[in-house]
Amino acid sequence: MKRDPDLERDILLAVEAYDGVSGPRYAEIRHLSSTPLEADYHALILWESGLIDAVDARTKEDPFEMWPIRLTMAGHEYLDSIRDEEVWRRTKEGAQAVGSFSLDALGALAKGLVREKIRKHTGVEVDL
Questions:
Q1: Whether residue 32 sits in one domain with residue 54
Q2: How far apart are CA 68 and CA 70, in angstroms?
Q3: How confident is the prediction along the chain (128 residues), in pLDDT tens digits per residue?
Q4: CB distance 68 to 26 below 8 Å
Q5: Does residue 12 share a domain with residue 62?
Q6: What is the pTM of this model?
């Protein structure tokens, strides 16, 4: 299955919004994708990459099922770098131009754009 960076971002936003108190015992993500399998697969790879904590609910019948419960600190940091719609759009454009949609490449591009935005609005050079 191909990775979908937009779906990964949507899942991270949904997990961040989950408060753990009201509703189900985990962040609902299956509605974010065209198929539950695709949403589960992306949650699994976000879990494997250390961006979310999740209950591992995989079975033979559903080899990708994960129940996201929270962002890790790395997940918060990554999401904060891609949260802004303009930064996200430009990050994807940059990744497309260089042909790499790895998490590291997306994160580095987004941080560069955030750094540029900070300098533009404050005149301060920051090292993120």
A1: yes
A2: 6
A3: 999 999 999 999 999 999 888 778 899 999 999 999 999 999 999 999 999 999 999 999 999 999 999 999 999 999 999 999 999 999 999 999 999 889 999 999 999 999 999 999 999 998 87
A4: yes
A5: yes
A6: 0.92
